[in-house]
Write a structure and sequence with these properties.
Blueprint (H helix, E strand, L loop, with lengths): L1 H7 L2 E5 L6 E4 L1 E3 L2 E6 L14 E7 L6 E12 L3 H10 L9 E7 L1
Antiparallel strand pairs: 1-2, 1-5, 3-4, 4-7, 5-6, 6-7
Amino acid sequence: MLDAALRKAGAVWVVVDEHPARLVWTVWRAGALWVAVGPDEQEVPGLSDGVRCQVTLRSPTTHSHLLDVPAVAHRVEPDEETMAALAAARLNASPRWAEVYRLDPA
């Protein structure tokens, strides 16, 4: 169920420590959520390599709460396919990220 739900999610809420939740565009690949962040891109306060975070998925139609998933963030250098997938997920903007994180469900 987790795999199917996250595979369909284009955006999720991410919370790190006591920071406010942020809605971010993501891509589900290789059993993890990939998120691109940076000053000219979406920001996730507190997100860094090795940090624990919480991912919240809401229904795309009703916006009701579906599930919470604890995850661990890993800063990565994405391969070309992942970079293309991240760029495609940003339908209304050209990618300008500074960092890419892989959020592995814990």
